[in-house]
Amino acid sequence: MAIKRKEKEIYYSLDRILKENADYNVIFGERSNGKTYAVLKYALEQYVKNGSQLAIVRRYRDDFTGKRGDQIFAGLVNNEVILRLTNGEWSGVRYYSSRWYLCKYDEKLGKQVMDSEAFAYGFALNTWEHDKMPSYPKIRIIFFDEFITRDFYLDQEFVLFANVVSTVARDRGDIKIFMCGNTVNKYNPYFVEMGLKEVKKMKQGDLQVYTYGESELKVAVEYSYFKQKKKKSDKYFAFNNPKLQMITGGAWEIALYPHLPYKYKPKDVYFTFFIEYDNEMLQGELINVNDTNFLYMHRKTTELKNTDRDIIYSQKFDPRPNWRRRLTKPKYKWEQKIKFFFDNEKVFYQDNDVGELVRNYLNWSDTHENFA
User: Fold this and answer.
1) Residue 184, Cβ neighbours under 10 Å: how many?
2) What is the dihedral of CA 70, 71, 74, 76, to 10 degrees?
3) What does pTM read for this prediction?
4) CATH number of the domain at 15-248, please?
């Protein structure tokens, strides 16, 4: 049985970010602080007020089909928000065929009845091709929930999302876009693709606004925070584990990675390569110390001197033979040797942030790219 949200508890509010009147509203923070609830409530308020429909975007269709689709608005139903917003006309939400309808139980008919028109539509990035033909003239709010993931992103995912926005917006300029995510991965493609260069430096409670030259585009980014500093449930996550800080305090989730096991000298390095990812350059060194071989990854703090000769892994397409893209798909023996260290967990890192960067690059490298 779902528990009603207590009014005395302070949850995230859209009030601050809405004042910026931005086209894109990017909101991230700790789990369960009310980000999703706030956006869904705002969307329902707009639908009741002026008929604006909502597009719910997720990475995979399974993220909102079946029981998951039924539960998306459960919090608003349980708190009787829909009942209040519609002055008692509707009390619930029913999901059917990638659409959400307001509904209620009709005592005279003895069954549940639905509104004749959907107030929300579901779009999945991995199947957007199937959804792009119809016109959606009443959709004025797009909501991409859980846009940040610690798992794999789809190939060209930001472009797929942009295509969904294009499908909905067509030639209109009245769309407001919300993107919500938990602090599970600060090295994600959206921050880079959208030019949000300062996001990784943001602290909880910060709000930044980005503009883009002469364009009218405006993006507001908020690192949301939970005003009620301590929750009773925090005691269940009091372990000395940095991965859990994003649950209790909204910090970015970062795993623990092995650090340098031995001190080494330049003569101990027998092969060097570089990884360019997320606007950062990392240096990889194959090292032999005490008859032990291992790979060490650290930041490259100076400019590359030999971009025509150094082995560089990058997402960029570059025709030079020393530029490679996917480390996990080796074609030459020296590439296989690098991959061997990753496959056999013989890689050490300057710090945990470097480990996170490499992990995200390898996740991208493992994906299958579609050039169509």
Assistant:
1) 19
2) -90
3) 0.82
4) 3.40.50.300
Q: What is the dihedral of CA 250, 145, 188, 320, to 10 degrees?
A: 180
What is the per-residue pLDDT across 213-233, written as a single tens digit (0 to 9) for each?
Answer: 999 999 999 999 765 555 565
Residue ranges of the domains in the chain?
Answer: 15-248, 266-366
For 7-20, how does the pLDDT look when each residue is reduced to its tens digit (9 = 90+)?
Answer: 444 689 999 999 99
